[in-house]
Amino acid sequence: MVGITDVVRSELQNYADRGIFQNFSVAGSGSKNLNFKFNWLTKNSFSLLLNVDKSQLELQNLLPAVPYPSDMDKAFRNFLIGRSDLSVPVHRRLDDKRFTFQVKNRDKNLSVIISFSEEDAAEAAKTTVNLLHEIFNNFLVEGPYQNYMVEFFNEPEE
Amino acid sequence: MSKKTEKPQNDTNKSTDDEKIVSRRNFIKGTALAGAGAAAILQAESSEAHQADAMDIKIPEEIPRTLDEAAKPANFPMTGAEVFAKFMKDEGVAGFFCCPGNYNMINAIAAEGIPSYGGRSEGNMTSAADGFSRVTGEIAATSGTEGPGFTNMIMNIGAANSARTPLLVIASNKTIGEDDTEHGIQTAYQQSQTDGLKKWGKRLITPNRIYEYAAYAFRQLKTGVPKPVHLDFPGEISRARFEEPGELQYYYDKTRYRTESKAHPNPADITRAVEMIQRAERPMIVASTGVFYDKAWDALLRVAEKNDIAVTESAPMRGHFSDGHELSASTGLDAVRSADLVILVGQYCMPSIGEFAFGPDAKWIRIDPDATDIGRNVPIDLGIVSSEKAALEALEDALPSRNRQNWRDELSAARKAFDDQSDEYYNLGLKYSADTESIHPAVIGKHLHDFLYAGDIAREQTTVVSGGYGIGRYTRRYLRAFRPGQICNGAYQYGAIGPDVGYTVGVGAAVQNGVGPQAPYKGAPIVGITGDAGAAYSIMEFETLGKYRIPAIMIVYNNNAWGVWTSGAGRGAVRAQHMYLFQENLRYEKIAEALGCNGEYVTNPDQMTPALERAYKLASDEGISTLINCQGKKEFWTNQYPPSMPRHFAPGALAYYK
Question: From the CA of A2, how many Å to the nearest CA of chain B?
Answer without folding.
Answer: 25
